[in-house]
C-alpha cells in the first residue's frame, strides 16, 4: 500500500485533543517570534506545520518541549497544564523531540545508542569498557525493526547514511515511549528513497503516537498529512487540508515570491 493511500486511511485519530495551546506567545527582546497561537492536536494525529523561514515554527516546537519558556499563554497535555514545568518534566510527561541535526553518539553502535536512549545508559557506559556487552532488549529490537535499523545494530553510527542517522535519532526518541513526537524537518537532505521510507515511517507512527512535524517540502507534506497548520510572522495564518491551504488566498499572499509552496 502506498503512502498516499495510507494517509487517507489513518482512522485511529480520536476527537479528544492530546495537546492544546492557548494564546501561546514568546517575545525575544519585544520581538514576538510566536504570537497567540491556539493549537489543538488530536490524539494520534499527524499534523504538519509549514511556513516561510522565520515564521516561528522551530520556536513553537521549542515552546512545546519546554526548551523555551512562553512569555504568555498556556500549554495543555490532555487535562494537565504543563506550561513552565521545565524541559525534563515535559519529556517525562511523554513529549519527545527530534532535532534536525542528529545528536547520536557517532563512535557508538546503533544498539549502544539505543541503549543510551532507553535509560540503560549507566550499564552501557560501564560495559563499553568491558569485554561482554549487553545484547538488545525486546524493546530495542522492536524500535530498530520499526525504523529499518535491525540489520545495522552492530554498525557504528559514523558508518550510517544520512537517512539512517535520522532514523536512529527517531528510534532513540521512540525508545523513551513518547506519546507526542515533535520532529523538525525529518526528511531534510534525504534521497528520494529515504524520503519515501520516512513518509512510510511517519504514517506508521501516527495513530499509536501523536506526531507534530515541521516540514518545507510540500510534496512530502501532501503525502503524510490531512491537516496542515500554516504559520506566518509568528501566528497561525491558516489550517486545513493541503488542497485548502494551497488555494487559500492569505497563504498564497504570504508565500508570494517563495518557491516552497508553488513549486513543490
Ligand atoms: N533565541 C532567539 N532570540 C532572538 N530571536 C529569535 C530567537 N529564536 C528565534 N528568533 C527569531 O524568531 C523568529 C522565528 O524563528 P524560528 O526559527 O522559529 O522560525 P522558523 O519558522 O523555524 O524558520 P526556519 O524555517 O528558517 O527554521 C525569527 O525571526 C528568528 O530570528
TrEMBL record:
Cited CDD domains: ABC_Mj1267_LivG_branched
Recorded superkingdom: Bacteria
Domain ABC transporter: from-to ranges: 19-258
Residue ranges that the Swiss-Prot or TrEMBL entry lists as coiled coil: none
GO molecular function annotation: ATP binding
Protein keywords: ATP-binding, Nucleotide-binding, Transport
Descriptive protein name: Urea ABC transporter ATP-binding protein UrtD
Species whose genome carries this gene: Aminobacter carboxidus
Top-level taxonomy: Bacteria, Pseudomonadati, Pseudomonadota, Alphaproteobacteria, Hyphomicrobiales
Gene name per UniProt: urtD
